[in-house]
């Protein structure tokens, strides 16, 4: 003879239903936060590099060349002030060391543009991106520590693999991990209305915290540039502004190089000569 199902107090059942809905909402918010930080943010940064970064790299290069020309002039003038002809080998060697940090910045900026181009060329198709997020959401309900504090060590390790696969946009890996993840057994039903109310309030507080965290994330760059990056007029204006700065640095470099020309014809035989 089969056992009759346990009849819950109507108040308990209502709270259990509310708790289930709160868990669903929290899972959605946890998924949204991770998506913002590890997918959307990286895509926005890549888009910024593609639309603006190349111009900023040219500005950095032009600024570096202008500063280097100024320093070459200053070092040549310093030698003349000491009654010596400029030692160009020594000066250029000194400049190589002095501008190492600037060259490193240029190299890193170029690498960021290259990485951005690669990322944007390998974005998932919309259907795959939707599946990726759907798989992550389902796994988050089973394995996210904030929703499942009683996870085993194996389940926690599996959750780390889920995060890594999601951040790598690896749909195939998430599909495989879905097969590995055993459905998480629901926690025993609390025996009292008070215990259920405590669970409900805890979930409500977690949701409020998550909403604040997501709001803070979206209030900071690069999320604040979403609309601007989609506005071709804004992008064109930023490029034009950067072009103006590039032209300014190029004029400065040319002026320093013109001022340097008389020093290039000084005798380079080590002899002393007066400042006249």
List descriptors.
single chain; 276 residues; mainly alpha; 0% strand
Summarize the structure in words:
The chain has 276 residues and is mainly alpha-helical. The protein has 9 helices and no strands. It has helices spanning 10-81, 88-98, 100-121, 126-143, 153-167, 171-180, 193-218, 226-229, 232-264. α1 runs antiparallel to α3 (100-121), α1 (10-81) runs parallel beside α7 (193-218) and α1 (10-81) packs parallel to α9. The longest helix has 72 residues, at 10-81. It is elongated and about 100 Å long. Mean pLDDT is 90; it is low at 1-5.
Largest sheet: none
Total E-strand runs: 0
Helix content: over 70%
Point out poorly predicted stretches. Answer: 1-5
What series of H and E elements makes up the topology? HHHHHHHHH
> In one word, what is the shape?
elongated
Give me the number of helical elements. Answer: 9
| Estimated structural class | mainly alpha
Write down the Rg.
31 Å
The averaged pLDDT comes out at 90
Please report the distance between the alpha carbons of the first and last residues.
118 Å
Q: How much strand content do the residues show?
A: under 5%
